[in-house]
Amino acid sequence: MDFANFGVVSFTKQAKVAPFVDYLDQGKVMATECKQCGKKYFPPRADCPYCLSSEMEWVEIKSKGKLLTFTTVNYGPSGFEDVAPYSLGIVEFPEGVRVLAKIRKKVDVGDIKIGMELRVVPVVLSEDRFAYGLEP
Ligand SMILES: [Zn+2]
Description:
38% strand, five-stranded mixed barrel, 136 residues, mainly beta
């Protein structure tokens, strides 16, 4: 086994949160919210680790959020050599979740600033492979 696909093949349809992939296919990035206690999760969870409820509902993350922090990777790890340099950021959304994702190349590395507004969008890698990324 090697790491050629690490981070590229991220989601399969064999999880309790499988609809997440269908939503990405529909152009939506979704979190889950616990119907019992109201906590929200991203990546989505099917069970609430806080109150142990399995009654969750899907919530779309469609607002712009604020970039809390970021880092730029200049020397990629195994499997990422060809994509470096790339930047990873954590964005806090008004929907109540934080998302860690790659900042898409639509933003020049030198223009990335803490506090800038970004949205999270689905990224189609191939016919049945999806990821998500951050862009203005
Ligand atoms: Zn809960």
